[in-house]
Design a protein that fits this description.
By secondary structure, the protein is mostly helical. The chain folds into two domains: about 5-30, no CATH class; about 40-375, no CATH class. About 65% of the residues lie in helices and about 0% in strands. The protein has 18 helices and no strands. It is found in: Membrane. Its main location: membrane.
Amino acid sequence: MPPLIWTHLPGRELVVQTFSLLGHPAAWAPISVAPEATWLAFLSLLPPLAIFLAVLTLDWRERRLMSFALIAFGVVSVFLGLLQLAQGPTSPLRFFEFTNQTDPVGFFANRNHFAALLYCSILLCGAMLAPQFAGLLSGRKKGRLSGDGSYPLAAIAVGVALVVLIAGEVVSRSRAGVILMVVALVAGFVLYGDNRRAVENVTFPRLLGAIVALAIVLLGQAALSRLLDRFDVDPLADARFVFARSTIAAAKSVMPIGAGVGSFPSIYPTFEKSGDLLPGIYANHAHNDFLEAWLETGLIGPILFVIFLIWLARKAIAAWASSNPDLLPVDRALIRASILIILLLLGHSFVDYPLRTGAMMAVFALACGLLIDPPIASAPAAPLSNRNRQKLRRRTMAPSKLSQ
């Protein structure tokens, strides 16, 4: 934009003063006060966008496999985190220089984002667990189990994965992660609201309670005491209120167009007061993604977010309304688990910034993609029984006999 326009935008006074101090006339400039960071922010959206579009091309069976892959990735992350914890702060398995050196972080730099991956994986386990064990305990020992497409080995694997993920969540010592994990475990009971018989047959509450108890036993007293220490006074807890106050002041100064996506580290220090500075703490994010998005996007961000919430609410109503008879119980549960994953990540964003990491953006994109039905041509039908298979085989063989 020409100087005649951008110099009159709110919040650009400091930039205008800089040109004046340098003795240079104001040049053409973009809307964002940090255009390079804005371009990088948009480029960071390419991987989650690719994940979202890829999920739209998958049928129900492939979406189940994707969910299993994410659960497996969460389990691998837990074991990596335990190795990091065992090797100490100087572990070569810590892939980032600035990280939580005394806690497991997996493939992340921050224990909170590591915990976010785990509670998302726990919800996917909940979506898989009830139908798997319903088939496992229904009396069928071989082959494909009752029309839900479950297998005994898969049921056992999901149960073991859930134990590992719960243990990893507690060891991570993320307060928000542990609280949201409890929410995810409780939410597991509403994934099968229209299939009570299947849940009652496997006494799902007892099963889930047994898994949680087993995870606590495996953790031991030392791990639990480490977690309780995290719920003591934390300097960052006070810093979040400071960050929020300064972010709100900065957001008001650049209304209604915002400062530009990715511009928080550039504009926040100009509103930070000397009395708010905390030793050893640098505000690279607001630790409240909604306030940070308001600062960077102005009115556009909240409007887009409201539109997204309306879309999500419609999907949630459809997911818990009258069930689609063409869907297997596990596929219906995956849709509901995806809605809960989105809500948990949004709730986590009030106290942190999980969606500003590439991995969690990809998980969020995967959950959004699972809410959209696959192409009709690729949607698999329910598994055929042995009798139906024989009928179908006889029908397909009939033309060949006539031709002979």
